[in-house]
Amino acid sequence: MTAQPVVSRHDLLTRYDSRAPRYTSYPTALQFSNAVDADVYGDWLSALDPAEPVSLYAHIPFCDRLCWYCGCNTRVVNKPALISDYVDHLIDELILVEKRLPGRIKAGAVHLGGGTPNMLSRDDLVRLFGAMRHVFPFAPGVEISAELDPAVLTEGWVKAAAFHGLNRASLGVQDLAPHVQEAVNRIEPFDVVARAVHWLRQAEVASINLDLMYGLPRQTTADVVATLDKVLALRPERIALFGYAHVPWARPHQKLILDEDLADAAGRLEQSQAAAERLVRAGYVAIGLDHFALPSDSLALGLASGTLRRNFQGYTTDPHPTLIGLGASSIGRLPQGYAQNQSSEVMWRAAIASGRLPVARGVALTDDDRLRADVIERLMCDFAVDLGVVAARHGVSAGVFVDDIAKLESLRADGLARVDGDVIRLTEEGRPFVRLVAQAFDRRSEPQERFSRAI
């Protein structure tokens, strides 16, 4: 057997320092078009199975401050009346959706994202939960989660949310080094984070996730590890460690971050691997590309059982095939395809005011899309895929992947991936390059410059 050539990490990073989708969906949002509009979405809603629970996602596009690294659809708002009016429109959108449903459908999961959902007043939060429960009765054991900004969180808000069923919370931390916080316009002392965790624990919120980032401006490996050393004392059930996606052409406020303040591919990889090693030593299970969970957490259990999934919120165990998106820019996933609401809040409000579902674009799934989405999801979740098993699940032969496997030749030759018959498996060295392996099976890929860096 011929030994594989040893390729230095420097050479690998030079060779593969490219851009690729994050594959939180397939096809990606860049493939969405106005071929999916309000009428198409309405028909999709009408075809849902009333016996099959759905997930709900409500987007709250407001923040108290603008974080320069942010890639979300959000804006700074300090007018409670405007936020309350937005909730009025969310409730009206729920009513429009209800009119197209074939019957009463239960909600098995609810997620409030943003932006900053805890910008909602307690009264508006209660109104929104009430409207959701009216249109989609909550199933027993419903998972209710929210993304929270510790700096504007109050104990009263936590108590109100917990009373209405909040059982998972995700707190944005990113990095605790003052010079990094200054570079991204997010000043947040550790005490603020610890206080938020304390309130959530007191309210018996069962699972807490902390969002951290690497690759931020002026951030060093020592900063990343020091942040981990502090937050691990809080023993969160999950930690998400995202790589900063510098896409100033898509998010103009990121132009406030200087290119020269950002680490190169080698620096980013060093930061992510040092953090991963620290988390594993602390007893966390590595989940996919950028998540970590305690062994008892459902993410770790899902990884072990092969039921881990990937969606727009990252890695999840949400089993529901349908996601109903609510709010400006939100994306829904139905058996027929993806549908996205108007990204412009003004246009979203106008559509609802006219009595029309506010969907602006999306993509209808083909059989080939579903096949490739399955392959890509397994690679992103398990770092491996049995193409024969996936092909059989979709009623085709694994031979359809011959051209895709050929695209992996350089990655295989460099020791990043192994091909054993129908089984594709990333090596330990190759795991940071998983997005590039997944991209080999992407038949709809856009030009690279539209994506963030793969490493």
From TrEMBL:
[4Fe-4S] cluster binds at residues 63, 67, 70. It catalyses: coproporphyrinogen III + 2 S-adenosyl-L-methionine = protoporphyrinogen IX + 2 5'-deoxyadenosine + 2 L-methionine + 2 CO2. SMART domains: Elp3. S-adenosyl-L-methionine 2 binds at residues 69-71, 115-116, 174, 186, 211, 245. One of its GO terms (cellular component) is cytoplasm. Its main location: cytoplasm. Its EC number is 1.3.98.3. Pathway: Porphyrin-containing compound metabolism; protoporphyrin-IX biosynthesis; protoporphyrinogen-IX from coproporphyrinogen-III (AdoMet route): step 1/1. GO terms for biological process: protoporphyrinogen IX biosynthetic process. Binds 1 [4Fe-4S] cluster. The cluster is coordinated with 3 cysteines and an exchangeable S-adenosyl-L-methionine. It comes from the Bacteria. GO terms for molecular function: 4 iron, 4 sulfur cluster binding; coproporphyrinogen dehydrogenase activity; coproporphyrinogen oxidase activity; metal ion binding. Keywords: 4Fe-4S, Cytoplasm, Iron, Iron-sulfur, Metal-binding, Oxidoreductase, Porphyrin biosynthesis, S-adenosyl-L-methionine. Residues 48-282 form the Radical SAM core domain. Its cofactor is [4Fe-4S] cluster. Involved in the heme biosynthesis. Catalyzes the anaerobic oxidative decarboxylation of propionate groups of rings A and B of coproporphyrinogen III to yield the vinyl groups in protoporphyrinogen IX. Monomer. Belongs to the anaerobic coproporphyrinogen-III oxidase family. This is Coproporphyrinogen-III oxidase. It comes from Caulobacter vibrioides OR37.
